[in-house]
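Subject — a protein and its fold
Fields — amino acid sequence, structure tokens
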Amino acid sequence: MEIWINPACSKCRSALHLLDEEGADYTVRRYLDDVPSEDEIRAVLDRLGLEPWDITRTQEADAKELNLKDREAWPREAAARDRWIAALAAHPKLIQRPIITADDGTAVVARTDEAVRDALGR
């Protein structure tokens, strides 16, 4: 199991605390320092069953600079998928956190205790 975190994020710290309480065996990836490649982002999206715009933090300053909320400039459709993934790789702060990749090949955006427990049960 791997968890992508930003140590400054309270949701990430909470997820780590719960994983530790449960005695989980996991690896931490500080994704702002160890930035995932476009291929790694694609793989995580496949595991999540989500699209890149589903895990994009649109309130971040980078998102505002890129104008990601403009659906004409950034359509949420298959043809724009690679562009979104490239933006996430170029601006990792935009990636929703924490993300846990479970041992069964799935993943969850672990923003709640329930989501963390769900990943532990997989």
Remarks:
- The chain has five helices and four strands.
- The mean pLDDT is 96.
- The helical segments are 10-21, 38-48, 61-66, 81-90, 113-120.
